[in-house]
Design goal:
mainly alpha; Ferritin; 4 helices; 64% helix
Length: 170
């Protein structure tokens, strides 16, 4: 395990980079699953979210390269509960979810990411760490705004009936 992201800029960047990669990977996986279940609308939403996370990861990677920050293996980071704050919990996803429900999950993930950087901003004593934490919190707030824009396009709707519900053994 590595030091805290509040300790120095290199560590903060490494953690932020991994957070974005984890979110991108999860959204891509969810898009694949939705495509397998012929839920193309939801697959497209997840693909777009993955694209946004990938762009942010690439920006952070450039910042890391500029200062020579190491790229950490995902197992070197202790997120506390096992997953990065910006990662959607697989237990909250199913193939019948509506776009509104999926975007609500994305909204929560973006809000957790913003809270993560707000917390770092409050805890960090190094001015550069605080500058980056503030920058990332602002970026996550922009992601929150993007998800809210998408949510406005998808009002809550009833879930469709499950054409193949699970059966309990008799």
């Amino acid at each position: 395990m590595t030091s805290s992201p509040a300790d120095n800029v290199a560590t903060l960047l490494a953690w932020a980079h991994q957070m974005e990669l984890d979110a991108q990977e999860r959204y891509s996986m969810l898009a694949d699953q939705m495509e397998a279940h012929n839920n193309t609308e939801l697959a497209q939403i997840f693909r777009n979210l993955a694209r946004v996370e990938g762009l942010h990861a690439a920006e952070i990677r450039q910042q890391m390269q500029q200062i020579g920050a190491p790229i950490l293996d995902e197992h070197e980071i202790d997120w506390g509960d096992g997953e990065a704050p910006e990662t959607v919990d697989l237990g909250d996803v199913d193939y019948l979810m509506t776009p509104h429900e999926a975007l609500q999950l994305a909204l929560k993930a973006e809000q957790r990411a913003k809270a993560f950087f707000d917390d770092l901003l409050a805890r960090a004593s190094d001015d550069e760490v605080r500058r980056f934490a503030r920058e990332f919190a602002t970026e996550e707030q922009e992601h929150v705004a993007l998800v809210l824009e998408e949510l406005a396009k998808y009002p809550a709707t009833p879930r469709p009936d499950d054409p193949d519900p699970p059966h309990s053994p008799a």
